[in-house]
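pipeline stage [seq->struct] | target=Phenol degradation protein meta | organism=Photobacterium frigidiphilum | residues=312
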Amino acid sequence: MFMRFIIIFIFIVHFLNQNTIAAEGGYSNYLPGSYGDFGMALSPTETWTIRNDTYYYDASTSRAVQGGNLVTDLDLQFLMNFTTLLYKPEFKIFGAQYTTGIFIPFVNLNTEASLKVKEGSGSQVLNARDSATGLGDVSLIPFALFWSEGNIHSSFAHYVIIPSGDYDVNNSINNGLNYWSFDTNLAITYLNLETGHDFSFNLGHIYNTENEDTNYQTGQEIHLDIALNQFFSDSFAVGIHGFYLNQFTGDSGSGALLGDFKAEVVGVGPALLWNTKISNQDVSFIAKWLHEVKAENRLEGDHLFLSFAFDW
């Protein structure tokens, strides 16, 4: 059964890769590694779940569009602390456990790039550095539905990313992206408690609205997150995690200076899970590092997560 799920996953990656194909600023509202890790399709065990992630992304790209200007040799350092709060009432839909929640990010960004500024009919190139700190774009989770049957667990969830972060078109970097995103996800987990095998994947589709300040609309995206984990006990597990993003429609609008731009990125890396008790409260600690091994028309770098979570 475990090998069957691995074969299915390989097939999905191969299918998506047949349409190998950027996003405004070189990144979008898709955050690799944040769509679950160990047992990602398992329902929360208690009424409330809180998770806190400290996330760091260090990346670069040769060209991108920011604030209506073309930039080259862009370097980005992105530090985020985000809290996810889930509420699980005693309520079911279609036999599935219903859950709702919110994702609240606080960000610190630093960029350095060569900036090509439009001036009338001409332009000039400047070396630019900028930074931004504050509330990022909040995500609402209007519903997440969880089913379970034996070793197979599945979930169907929808995320609405709200342009709540500060945004100024005159800045080269901002707390938010200034557009809405609608992200629909299906996740499946195979978890064998006897062998400790855990194979999980999450397949999602993101529709992005237009940034009206720049007339730039980032194309639609498909993302796939995978986790191959081994539990050695109830308190310790290791895994190999990966992700794949394919932007299958091009960027559009008068602000899309690079034209019908499309992005693709692949990343993989190790993950650790440690469960323990603190003041009689079960707490999970997670660490993972995802290295982008291939990126096309998008920032390329490394994602690092240090997280903890607990239910009550």
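stage status: PASS
auto-comment: Confidence is low (pLDDT under 50) at residues 4-21. Helices lie at 2-17.
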